[in-house]
# Entry
Amino acid sequence: MNGLDEQMTGTTSTARGLARRLGPFLGLIGILLAGVVLNGQTFLSLYNQLNVLGRVSIIALPAIGMTLVIISAGIDLSVGSLLSLSTVACAMLLMEREWTRATSITVPLFILFALMVGYFIGRGILIHKGHDRKRADIVGLIAGLLMAVAVGLWSSAQVAHGFSTIAVLLIIPILGLFLGAFNGVIIAKGRIQPFIVTLGMMSAAMGLAKFIAGRGGQIHPIYYQSAGYSAEGTVNIAPQSFDFLSSQVVIHFTLTRLRFGRHIYAIGGNEETARLSGVNVDRVKMMVYGICGSLSALAGVLYCASYSQGKPDAGATWELDAIAAVVIGGTSLMGGRGTVIGTMVGVLILGYLGNILNLQEVPSEVQDILKGVIIIGAVLLQEGTLLWWLRGIKRKRIS
Amino acid sequence: MEQKMHDRIGAIHTRRYLLSALTILLLLPVVMTGCAKSADEGTWVIGFSQVTVKEPWRVVFNENLRAKALEYGDAVDLIVLDADDRTENQVEHIQIFISRQVDAILISPKEASGCSRAIQEATEAGIPVIVLDRDTTWKGYAAFIGASNLVIGRAAGTYAVQQLGGAGSAEGKIYEICGALASTPAQERRDGFHEVVGQEPGVVILGGLDGDWKLDQGKAIAQDALQIHRDIDIIYAHNDPMAYGAYQAAREMGVADRIRFLGIDGLPEEGAVWVRNGILAATFLYSTPGEAGLEIAIDILEGRREITPGERITLPTATITAENVTEFLKQDDPRP
# Structure
């Protein structure tokens, strides 16, 4: 158990472990200090802080999902495409007043989800109360069907006046959940590398986004008179930061306190050992990719709220930004080690870096170079191998 | 155990072969029908290779071109291929067009050099090639048609100077948000603008960061810029979405009313709508060259026009403001 704890928090007694754990925080403090020194009051103002938080809260969600995936020794390249798909579906659900491709794809999945939830809850309660399985199955099925009908009626009632905010906040993450879980099923049952499967999903989801957007991938603007998210009207930064912080807290709790979280670390550490110890590896993987997908989709809804548009390539290359944040946050790409808090720090480092450089009016090309340097530098420092290497050179010189 | 593993691996292999065979079988008819289609008598077959349909402007480009082809009725058979932003696909498209012996080729290439050789081959095979929007290094084509970003940049500059008090007496601060600076359109939209505005000693142009044509990046840049420059009079963005993003930032900060936003492109569902809604002060039309291209191709084929190799035709721009915006909107747009 001690070993597992070490893996989870990244604590080891060595200096390397300490560097790994504290590195991202020191980096963030350094960046914040640089911001205060260079830009002073402008940087510290509430307005600026809320801006940065609002901006990073979108990328933070797929990054949190990506952390789970990477801890389980996987990778998810499809988060950007799932985000794009969600922005298009969300914008269309909010704005269109008729049955569109977006509704044809999202509503059946929503109904299916309700059916599954109803079935498992109904069945679970009966089995818990000591009824036999056959009876529990039937009651579960009836409960599921009832829920499915209710959800079906509710969503078709929404079509006529455009979907409400609550509706898209429910439906869109479910779309992501199914597509993400599909990744997980293929990875777990088909025994194919996550890189390949999610690469396929990256392309397929991008295509699907263009397909449902219509006309080869048009942009769907959201106007503020709509029934939905008051996209152009109010500043949505506060609820966004809330979404971001709450999912961060929930996932952090899951990882550190629940058995499911320990299973993720176990799989990332050594999949075969985890399997032999009785971990249901396939199910955990499905859930991990499903969570990652649904967080990416939720980020798509936030994108719509921030930028009042659904765009089939809104999240292109965001998967790389998410991976960068995860890596800066000290999570190992080899799996088995990492924290969600680290990822949040990584996201903030990248966000503040862009903000400070913009405030300093540093040209874009220089900003890109600095971003690259920070990514590589952060990992080098965390691994502590740089010092070891330099020491080696010194030793050779002496001898 | 080992035997079992072996069997399993064998089974997976067989399944993989079956799958790939199935895929090929499924794809075969698609490919065959693509090749087998041949021209009817009395119909001009025109092949068009579009670099990408990812950008809304390209979507409108294709739509306008298709609408123009429909005007000719049965006389024109237009084949539109999407190169998915890859030069090698465009070269392949031209080779397909040559082997299918189309009557004329329209191409909107990805960049100047990659397609030149294929265009030369097509021209040497006797097929007139009309290059649209972006020029190629080889200038032997039948015609090049495109809007000039330099001209558009100048038009935007002229408008901005006029808004700030007119030539000679203009005063104020302009903040510029650039498109992807590694691309020619962004460079020309910047250079044309600076050329005109640079002659006004009272006007300062700030900024110039790269917003990569994206609304979200335009917004982020404006959020940061508005904090350090509190007295900006005009925000000039190299396309409408970035100008709209800047507007969102200013609105959230409560300063949108005293800033005028200028964009470029004037698409019927983006810039034009934003101008009508009073969000952008003006946008500058970046005309799609498809209709003119098709018209010239048909004129050449029907003998109404002589080919002068390397001929360049520049499409005019238009300044879209609240006064004339209705001309540029879609007539059936139901949106508020």
Summary: The longest strand of chain B covers residues 203-210.
